[in-house]
Amino acid sequence: MTMSDMPTNTDVLVLGCGAAGLSAAIEAADLGLKVLALESEDELAGSTRLSAGHCSFYGTGIVEGSREEFAADLRDSHHGDDDPKLVELYLDHVPGAYRRLVDDLGFHYDKSLQLAHMRRAWMHELSGNVRGGAEIGRLLEVAARQRGVDIRVAARARRLIRDDAGRVVGADVETKDGNVTILAAKGVVLATGGFTRNLALMTNFGGPNGARMLPIGGSGCRGDGLIMALALGAATSFISAGVAPTGPAEPKTQKGSLVAYCGAVLLNSDGERFANEAGMYSDVSVAALKQEDETIFQIYDETVREAYKNSMWGRVLTGFPEFKSDTLEELFDQIAAERRFDAQAAVATLGRYNESVRRGHDPEFGRDHMVGTAGKPTEITTGPFYGIITVPGTTQNNGGLKVDDGLRVIDVFGKPIDGLYAAGEIVGGFHGNGYLSGTHVGMALVFGQLAGKAAAGLAKA
Ligand SMILES: Cc1cc2nc3c(=O)[nH]c(=O)nc-3n(C[C@H](O)[C@H](O)[C@H](O)COP(=O)(O)OP(=O)(O)OC[C@H]3O[C@@H](n4cnc5c(N)ncnc54)[C@H](O)[C@@H]3O)c2cc1C
Fold first, then answer.
1. What pLDDT was estimated at residue 4?
2. Which residues are CB-neighbours of 41 under 8 A, at least 6 positions away?
3. Cβ distance 200 to 180 under 8 Å?
4. I need a labelling partner for 386 at 20 to 30 A (CA). Which of 92, 217, 239, 317 fits?
């Protein structure tokens, strides 16, 4: 791309090309508008691409269950503390957004999963042997290009531009060939994702231990959009309360690892369990951060490894180095040679764990299911045995910019900032003080669609 290639005028300018930005671009283009979508990195789809792409929806035909049941699970996972109008917005639009994905954009689902805080299997998984989030990025890119969206990579928005009346009319953008000012006649959609890779923001807004979590989201998670909007006086919502560690992650590869969801046991450095492995992975990470040393040792056998390999998590969250041995004793000695780890205590812990699996009840941590409220854990007895050293990692932010139910960014005085919309992880309030698995990509898709329509001029999407 050269500077002369880059348009300087468009109708709708979308900043960030993940699930939210591409969804917004598609909707605005379908309404007949000229859309320019900018991506700061060389590759599209940020954290969306790295994710498992699981989306929690209701009213899809894949899972039975009412809006009321789904709403109750959402509120429960938010610990009853969120922005109710955004929760209602999601509830209102999930069934329609789902039909749009499946009927018009090539999404393909045939199963869903039941995790913590779920009374039904709300979490939809793309069918086929695909990497969920990468497939979502691919499908959305194809749909956007088919509709004539002009997509540019290596184009990083740095500042929003306002006219004399205070309306946002464009952005200053940094490219490899220099800086360019792009004007947008209809509106600008901020969809730049989260801020987990911005140490200053994480230190200030990351909640307790925010800066101790290993960021494993997309390389563009610098909070650019948040900073650009704050510079215009934008308000935030649940900005620090909503930030949490998510799942265990392997430091060398910076890859998430959820083998526990297929049966691994989680131990601390004392060789003791410290949480219910079937619980929400963020709760597991919070529990790990409370240990003397936050390292999480995931221990599993061949049966668990095989099950993980065949899961969406195993297809996406993979590639980390494993310890391997024919006996648990040798495995623990190997680990102890590398890290402070009580190998003897670990042998005793595994003995107790296997006993509780045989009995069908875990008196220590209540792991009576494999994951959430589904399935049964298996004994760790089939060699070879494996171990991974992980730490609490963070995949996303839950808090961000305050928006109204038209996805307009709200300023600190409670007024919408004219011409400025936001969608996806950059938005705060929907998740409030917690989150239901599968609602980050879910929210990015649903709110992305709505923001695209709103920016295109539909008063309320
Ligand atoms: C390993 C992992 C697994 C996950 N699994 C799930 C899951 O299964 N289900 C779920 O619901 N959530 C999951 N999440 C979280 C989820 O992926 C994200 O919250 C969601 O994809 C965010 O979508 P988005 O479009 O808002 O942001 P992103 O997908 O991150 O897209 C934002 C884009 O904006 C770009 N950008 C940033 N700054 C600028 C700028 N200044 N100018 C232009 N472009 C910019 C970024 O590079 C990026 O491409 C996971 C996350 C990770 C990391």
1. 55
2. 153, 154, 218, 219, 220
3. no
4. 217
Tens of pLDDT, residues 331-389: 999 999 999 999 999 999 999 999 999 999 999 999 999 988 889 999 999 999 999 99
Cβ neighbors of 415 (< 8 A, separation 6 or more) are none
Q: Ligand 1 centre and the CA of 435: distance in Å?
A: 16
Where does 349-384 show beta strands of DSSP type E? none
- What angle do the packed helices 67-77 and 84-99 form, to 10 degrees? 130
What contacts 137, CB < 8 A, 6 or more positions away?
18, 19, 22, 44, 45, 48, 49
What is the CATH topology of the domain spanning 3-241+396-455? FAD/NAD(P)-binding domain (3.50.50)
Q: How far is the CA of 20 from the centre of ligand 1 (A)?
A: 8
What's the 342 CA to ligand 1 centre distance in angstroms? 37
Residue minimizing CA distance to atom 48 of ligand 1: 46
Confidence (pTM): 0.91
| Ligand 1 close to Cβ of residue 349 (< 6 A) | no
Residue 459 predicted with pLDDT over 80: no
The pLDDT of 120-148, averaged and rounded, is: 96
| Domain residue spans of the chain | 3-241+396-455, 248-394
Q: What's the rounded Cα separation, in Å, for the pair 301 and 305?
A: 6
Residue nearest ligand 1's atom 46 by CA? 220
What number does the ligand 1 atom closest to the CA of 443 have? 11
- Ligand 1 contact, 15 CB (< 6 A): yes
For residue 175, the cross-strand partners are 155, 178
How far is it, in rounded angstroms, from Cα 232 to Cα 94? 31
Is it the case that residue 42 has pLDDT exceeding 50? yes
Indicate the helix (H) or strand (E) that contains 381. Answer: none
Fold of 248-394: Flavocytochrome C3; Chain A, domain 1 (3.90.700)
The two domains 3-241+396-455 and 248-394 share their CATH topology (first three levels equal): no
Helix (H) or strand (E) holding 48: helix 46-50
* Distance of alpha carbon 346 from alpha carbon 180, whole angstroms: 59
Helix axes 132-146, 19-30, angle to 10 degrees: 20
- What distance in Å separates the CA atoms of residue 115 and residue 112, rounded to the nearest whole number? 10
CB 217 within 8 A of CB 355: no
